[in-house]
UniProtKB/TrEMBL annotation:
UniProt xrefs under InterPro entries: UDP-GALP_mutase, UDP-GalPyranose_mutase_C
Keywords per UniProt: FAD, Flavoprotein, Isomerase
Record family assignment: Belongs to the UDP-galactopyranose/dTDP-fucopyranose mutase family.
One GO cellular component term noted in the UniProt record for this chain: cytosol
Pfam family of the protein (one): NAD_binding_8
Protein name: UDP-galactopyranose mutase
Length: 367
């Protein structure tokens, strides 16, 4: 019996925004998720009063006033500004690369001094047509920044030598000749007070939701419940891996609760060196300026993906893109299924982009 207009598979941001907007237009939605909670990858787990970003650190940022106002309907945001630091060979450096970083590297105090060094190194080590990530980075930023802050970190992230990675992974390397440690250039930035769950709960208010339901295990039952399906899971899984697996890079998170009120003095500290197995440590309380007497930290390890692991970052090489295009062609022939979100589109999206994409798709569907 079709009790619902839409069955929404996946309670991540895409599914929740779609469900919220469709409900506002008088449609009846059922949202299911195979996890035991809603929110997808933005979900926060409350550990002893601290909101732990369970699937990796999430900082909201956007230049789009409409999207900023949209999320602010559901939660007030604090004025957190992402200013990560990186530890390399025992020394600490500010990110993104800016006048503070250059002072720490070379003792330069003026933009002109720093520019002279960077441009000189690019001239000496850069290539006209970089053929791999190392050559690309050397051509964009020079030797010292690359070797101190990029090379080993990137190799840990991708599990490959920089010379074996394609140049396109690094399209640009933002360099600022000002003393500004704000990682993002966007006009709006912050963390929702009370965590991302507040936004998700607001989006899903009044909507039927079932967790611990894997669509593929109860496909017959759930498909008959709704006129249309909004599918936000993996597109290759939807088509039973007909053209093979789409590959991802995975992450492993190791959490510890510590009896100290301040472990590292910053929410995000990167570890550049190859002999440190994790890429960064997140201290979650700093996202919300927490005053607790204890803290929770997460060591983030970059890992090879296997089908049993969480799929985090799509690996956008030619082979995967070819497979994805084949799945996309199948998807384009479906009349009652809408595909959306990072897994169904095999694409990395930031949160503001996924919200914009869901709003666009729901508008196209219901206007
Ligand atoms: P998801 O959140 O993955 O939701 C998909 C949901 O579908 C999941 O809950 C899953 O369980 C469910 N599902 C899948 N298959 C099935 C099935 N068969 N049956 C039922 N349910 C199913 N963005 C930012 O803007 N700022 C950041 O700082 C930031 N940091 C990030 C850090 C990391 C490590 C990662 C990986 C991403 C980060 N992002 C960040 C991006 C952000 O996480 C995404 O934009 C957003 O979560 C995508 O939402 P989604 O709904 O497309 O996918």
């Amino acid at each position: 019996m079709q009790m619902y207009d839409y069955l929404i598979v996946g309670a991540g941001l895409f599914g929740c925004v779609f469900a919220h907007e469709a409900t506002k237009k008088g449609k009846k939605c059922l949202v299911i998720d195979k996890r035991d909670h809603v929110g997808g990858n933005v979900y926060c787990e409350n550990v002893d009063g601290i909101n732990v970003h369970k699937y990796g650190a999430h900082i909201f940022h956007t230049n789009d006033k409409y999207i900023w106002d949209y999320v602010n309907q559901f939660a007030e945001f604090n004025n957190y500004v992402n200013s990560p630091v990186s530890i390399s060979k025992g020394k600490l450096y500010n990110l993104p690369f800016n006048m503070n970083t250059f002072y720490q590297l070379w003792g330069t105090k003026t933009p002109e001094e720093a520019k002279t060094i960077i441009e000189g190194q690019i001239k000496e080590h850069g290539r006209k047509n970089p053929e791999n990530l190392e050559e690309q980075a050397l051509s964009l930023i020079g030797k010292d920044v690359y070797e101190t802050l990029i090379k080993e970190y990137t190799e840990k992230q991708w599990g490959k030598k920089a010379t074996e990675l394609p140049a396109f992974i690094i399209k640009r390397l933002p360099v600022r000749y000002t003393f500004n440690n704000n990682y993002f250039n966007d006009a709006y930035q912050g963390i929702p007070k009370g965590g991302y769950n507040k936004i998700i709960d607001g989006l899903l208010e009044g909507i039927d939701v079932k967790t611990n339901v894997d669509f593929f295990e109860e496909k017959e039952t759930y498909t008959t419940l709704a006129k249309k399906i909004v599918y936000t899971g993996k597109i290759d899984e939807f088509y039973n891996y007909e053209y093979g697996n789409l590959e991802y890079r995975s992450l492993r998170f190791e959490n510890s609760r510590l009896d100290t009120d301040n472990f590292q003095g910053n929410a995000v500290v990167n570890y550049n060196d190859a002999d440190v197995p994790y890429t960064r440590i997140i201290e979650h309380k700093h996202f919300e300026f927490g005053k607790q007497e204890h803290t929770v930290i997460t060591k983030e390890y970059s890992e090879q993906w296997t089908p049993e692991k969480e799929a985090y970052y799509p690996i956008n090489n030619d082979e995967n893109q070819k497979k994805y295009q084949a799945y996309k062609t199948l998807a384009s022939k479906e009349s009652n299924i809408i595909f959306g979100g990072r897994l169904a589109e095999y694409k990395y999206y930031d949160m503001h982009q996924i919200i914009a994409s869901a709003l666009q798709k729901v508008k196209k569907e219901l206007n």
